[in-house]
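Page 42, continued from yesterday. The earlier attempt failed because a stray header line got pasted into the input along with the sequence. Redoing it now with the clean sequence only.
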Amino acid sequence: MGFVYFASPEVTPKKNSVLFAARTPFEIIPANDLQSKDAHRALLVNWCGINLAALYFSQRKDKASLFEFLLNLPPSFLDDRSALIGDFNTGKHKIDETGSTFIVSENMNRLENAGWVDAWRSINGEKMGVFLVQQYWQWF
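This time it went through. Structure tokens are written below.
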């Protein structure tokens, strides 16, 4: 595939994490406000002028702190071309699931209210499927 540049948070063995791989160089963005319990769950990079947050959310209510981290990113992160990508382990009740079992699903609305756009939902409306949150880009 030609991926020669890699980054991942430091983790202990047998702990799920995230990996960013690219064919061209990228810059790691410090995540200073990320809680230590979430340090293996997020990696911020700037690749080709795009801010990317690679994410792997925990289960149940433990994921709330990672949402808080995202909601408190500096305004410049959202003002630039940016995307949140990864496994959120949640969604919206009655839209991304038939029932109401998602935990901390209200944070999906909070991300939207902060200016993030659910790319899947903006293209597919109420249809169920893969979920992605991404900032709207003029050229996208």
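Notes: DSSP finds four helices and eight strands in the chain.
Reminder to self: strip header lines before submitting.
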